[in-house]
Specification:
about 325 residues, alpha+beta, 10 strands
């Protein structure tokens, strides 16, 4: 009764009927007494119990509950097969021919950008004991239906008209699995279907950045949090600023000639020794980047700076005022 009442509203379309069955108590008492159960026990059960039979209508005919369950399961399977076929057209027409081309172009552009950054970091680190290298690595697949990013990129690079059925099926199963997983997660986050598609097709999440460092005469190693913690102040600064400057420079190479080549840094080079600060300014000069910096003690008297304008803020505690002293 409780189960039926809980789902009554969901089952309205099936026009459920219930009727009492096995209500001939004398026949039932005789039956169970013959099996060795006391008559009082049987009558006590029958006085407190009613047995119902449920029937319903499905597509114009009367069926029982078990038949309805089987018919609904068959309808769901048929519907899923239809959706799967529609998905195939969606993936083949949109993923492979339209969106796929754009994703491929973005990935190739990003890979070129990373290569450009590494060339810049290599050139700026030639005179330094410490140089850096960036990798944009493919992520591994999470489920057996997914493929890793390296294979995914390979498939996207194939012309839509040339891709064979096996590769097409691989691609379709991959995105079908990703969408299914995200739909499960969306039950908790209430994301829309459009948000899910956006997330699944965001090629940036298919890769991860890894930064490597190399000291002169030594092998390249990944710069982990643990290694960063044992770096000196100057080395930490370089591991942050060198990739940052290289990224800005690489990005600006695709900008208009009139675009500002400007970096703004708050508390620039705090905790960095003079030798490394000198090198940071040298890198900025080599990359032809202009800059606006703030610092509590940056005098900019380094031979790697051609010219610079400075404003020192002078605080007057007595009069509660701030004055500006200009240098060039």
């Amino acid at each position: 009764n409780e189960a039926f009442n809980n789902y009554r509203n969901d089952l309205l379309d099936y026009h459920f009927n219930s009727k009492v069955i096995f209500n001939d108590n004398d026949v039932l008492v005789k039956e169970y007494v013959s099996r060795g159960i006391s008559e009082d026990a049987v009558r006590d059960i029958l006085n407190n119990s009613i047995r119902y039979d449920l029937s319903c209508r499905y597509q114009g005919r009367e069926v029982n509950v078990l038949e309805l369950k089987t018919l609904i399961e068959e309808a769901i399977t048929e519907s899923e097969n239809l959706i799967t076929e529609q998905e195939r057209h969606l993936f083949e027409d949109i993923l492979l021919k339209t969106v796929g081309n754009k994703i491929r172009d973005r990935i190739e552009s990003s890979q070129s950008w990373v290569k450009n950054m590494n060339e810049i970091m290599k050139s700026t680190g030639e005179e330094s004991n410490l140089s850096f290298w960036l990798e944009w690595k493919s992520k591994e697949a999470f489920t057996e239906d997914e493929i890793n990013t390296k294979e995914l990129v390979r498939l996207f690079k194939i012309d839509a008209g040339m891709i064979d059925k096996a590769d097409s099926d691989k691609l379709i199963e991959h995105f079908r699995s990703k969408i299914k997983n995200e739909l499960e997660l969306s039950k908790e986050t209430n994301e829309s279907y459009a948000d899910i598609i956006f997330k699944v097709l965001d090629y940036r999440s298919w890769f991860e950045f890894k930064l490597y460092y190399k000291r002169k005469g030594m092998d390249k190693k990944e710069l982990t949090n643990k290694m960063f913690a044992v770096f000196s102040g100057g080395e930490r600064a370089k591991s942050m600023y060198v990739p940052l400057f290289a990224a800005v420079y690489a990005k600006l190479q695709s900008a208009a000639p009139s675009a500002l080549r400007l970096i703004a840094l708050d508390e620039a080079f705090a905790g960095v020794d003079n030798a490394n600060i000198r090198e940071m300014f040298d890198i900025l000069a080599k990359l032809n980047l202009d800059y606006i910096l703030t610092s509590q003690s940056l005098w900019c008297d380094y031979d790697t700076i051609d010219d610079i304008s400075m404003c020192e803020l002078i605080k007057d505690e007595v009069h509660k005022a701030v004055g500006v002293r200009h240098f060039h």
